[in-house]
Amino acid sequence: MTARIDITLTVNGERVTRSVEPRRHLIDFLRLDLGLTGSHAGCEHGVCGACTVRVDGEIVRGCLVLAVSLDGAEVTTIEGLSDSGEVEDLQAAFVARNAAQCGFCTPGMVMAAADILRHHPEADRAAIREHLSGNYCRCTGYQAIVDAVEATLEARR
Amino acid sequence: MINKQVVARGLLGLARGMSSMKWPAFGYARARSLQDVWRLQSEHGDGARLIAGGQTLLATLAFRLSEPTVLIDITQVPELRGVSVEAGTLRIGALTRHAELGRDELIARHAPLLREAVPYIAHPAIRNRGTIGGSLAYADPAAELPACVVALGATLVLASAAGERRVRAEDFFTGLLETALRGGELITAVEVPIATAATRSTIAEVARRSGDYAMAGLAVHLSLGSNGQVAAPRLVYFGVGNGPVLAKAAGAALAGRRLGAESIAAVQAALAGDLDPPSDLHGPPEMKRHLARVLTGRALSRFLPATEVAA
Ligand SMILES: Cc1cc2nc3c(=O)[nH]c(=O)nc-3n(C[C@H](O)[C@H](O)[C@H](O)COP(=O)(O)OP(=O)(O)OC[C@H]3O[C@@H](n4cnc5c(N)ncnc54)[C@H](O)[C@@H]3O)c2cc1C
Ligand code: FES
Ligand code: FES
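# flavin-adenine dinucleotide complex -> structure
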């Protein structure tokens, strides 16, 4: 029963088919099987948010999703989001405000912030903080990150 | 077996005290109907575990607190989906995700308490996956939804190969991470009596950080008569016991009275007879009792007419 299972899914717009062990989580699948190392594995038990990716249009914890359960799903990682140009302005704001230091949290942070841009264009600082509350950053103290998201939201209004 | 004392400290607490590792090896099977679930359960026996959103199960597997041999994925079982209203009852399918609870129109209208609870549950990415069925089945004593369904006087619909039965929410939670679920049984839906013009409900909680499990919390549901008298109050505390605690003495202190500073003080005093909080990571029992009293004042004050709140 622990035998590999074949799955076919769309990752960043490309169809991929792989045979995976049931215990493989989405982040190991992306990093080890597909070589997409933009998504990070931090705590691997749902606490830090470094593994935030989109599945079928909604952000999830990649470390709390079984790859085998994603047959037929559509996954977008930081690589796909970045290439699409959807968050070019957000990324520029991160750079301008030094919102990335070591960068470990950044891919997950940008995925979660992109979710604010899409679903909560009216968000104020408190709402931004609330939405990012599940994404830990050990370097920046968050202020610069909240600034970058707020500036992007304002510029888009 | 799961070490319940450890698990009940909450995942975030666990994270500090224990190290996680890769998941153990297990098999995986996707069920497409309840019949499929029963078949897979009988094929795999005791080693099989159901997986819904996976937001608790997969997180705990990383600590190897349990090592199931096969996970039965129930997320494609149509009988467990959907939200509908029938004959004065709101039916919420077990697979309804926290994020859906937060945006569903029927829930906003007929069970606003559930919608109000959603922002307190974890974080957006977790709410996009976690389900009400999973939350109720896991029965974390600090979780919001178990307390809410008890406050709402809801009924849980349970099913197994042997058939269906209904259990009142307040009888469903039987102990620390323990429920009335029997082997081979699952939750198919939650049935909630729909809100009326007279009903009021709210939730209040204290957590160390936004999205953490509660240090202490309270879900309240009651009716207000035209004369301002309270009827059928249900105050349910979480994070202060082995499961959701329906505070009977506090409810009795409120029933039939008008809401106001005096009756609220009476409820706070009566709580001493209802709560016997264990000490945990967050602090000693007296701190939890204090928080429960504070939350009681905050929650009940929300139902006061604006003039009295200002006074
Ligand atoms: C970092 C973090 C923070 C969190 N914070 C909170 C919080 O503040 N408040 C809160 O309430 N929760 C919190 N959670 C938990 C989250 O709400 C989970 O979604 C929920 O507890 C379980 O739902 P699930 O669908 O993911 O269940 P799963 O993880 O899939 O399953 C949990 C258990 O329930 C069983 N099960 C699932 N569905 C059914 C069913 N229909 N019938 C019978 N058994 C079933 C499974 O076999 C398993 O034993 C947090 C989780 C994480 C990772
Ligand atoms: S790696 Fe997924 S939440 Fe930390
Ligand atoms: S920049 Fe280092 S963890 Fe956020």
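# post-check
The beta strands of chain A are 5-11, 14-20, 52-55, 58-61, 74-76.
The mean pLDDT of chain A is 97.
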